Amino acid sequence: MNKRRSMIGNWEHLWQASIFLFLCSLLFAFPVAIAAYIFGCLYAGFPVFLPPSAMSREQSVILVSILFCTALLILYMTLMLTVLYNLIIYRPATEILHVLNKKGEASSPAQSAESYLRGGSKSPFDLYHPRSSWADRVNDYIRSATQEQYIDKTTGCLNHKYYAESVEEILKTQLLCALSYSNQPGVRTNNYIYGIFLVDIDHFKRINDEFGHVYGDQVLMQVGRTLRLAVEDVGGIVIRNGGEEFLVIVCMDYPGRFSQIAEKIRRDFSETVLVTDARTHEVRQVTCSIGYLPFPLFRDSATAFSVQQHLNLSDQAMYIAKTEGRNTWRGIIPEKIPRTQFELEQSAVSLEYGIQRGYFQIARPMLSGDSEGLV
């Protein structure tokens, strides 16, 4: 019943509205007809409540005339209201929805933004399966069009504008929220920590030089899809940070086995992102280098480093992965908090300085490929 009521004014076909308007006209005309019959009987001096067989000829004429006029009134009201409804509401609304549905089909990447944020869950911007209300459909499109400005067209990932306007504020809020549990045991199941991963495509310039920029864009499309699939189970989002660099943010229960996520990204990347030489048909793997750290880096002093400083350190960890062979990852493990402001500033600027002072350690893959025991 609630579903039927919600459909009022949102019919897909005009005949559905006509039926509803006919019933409304009938409900309006029925009491009018009864009142007219009672008034006519009282005016002529006839008993009101008589069976048709007991009515006089004059009273029967009154009843038939009222029924005939009522039927004409119902038909006239239905026709008039249907014409008005079609001109004022139905035709303009269906034309608008037709345009929005076509635009919605053309902007499918925008419909995926919320899916990334929810780790692959269904999107509220799905115009292929609209809700019943016309207003809801228009509002959905407006929200979808707003989301579209945050989608990188080449990769289908979120863009840096989305990071700057939304994600960075979320991370700053997380730093403040982390203060509430900084002195509590980290074994609580309702404690969450974020992981920040910077992923860079290895030798991407070489791909562009050898195969051309069109092929480079195809590789970027593969990379975007691979990264989103790699982190969708942990509710991760993927942001194209610029060029061939991607920012991945995941949220996990404490303690957060981020090395396993890094290894999964590296493995999926090397297995699924491929280029084929058009002349020799040689299939070549495309690999990536990854740097990551937990966010906040120090649980007991969540605000020691800013969001940007976390990103800078993650970028330096990725650079270490580049210099130590590529197709690998390096993670930052916090050891102890710098006690002075000078030490904090130096450690935030230089990962090497923090390692030398014993504030950080670098996590590397085991020779066997097993990442157990690493952050």
Can you offer a commentary on this structure?
The chain is elongated, with a radius of gyration of 34 Å. The longest helix has 50 residues, at 57-106. The model is unreliable at 1-8, 106-132, 182-190 and 368-375 (pLDDT under 50). 53% of the residues lie in helices and 13% in strands. The protein has three domains: 2-105, no CATH class; 107-147, no CATH class; 160-363, Reverse transcriptase/Diguanylate cyclase domain (Alpha-Beta Plaits). It has helices at 2-6, 14-44, 57-106, 113-117, 134-148, 160-178, 204-211, 213-231, 258-272, 307-323, 341-349, 351-356, and strands at residues 192-201, 237-242, 245-253, 274-276, 283-285, 288-295, 328-334, 360-363. It has 375 residues and is α+β, with helices and mostly antiparallel strands. The strands form two sheets. The chain has a six-stranded mixed sheet, sandwiched between helices.
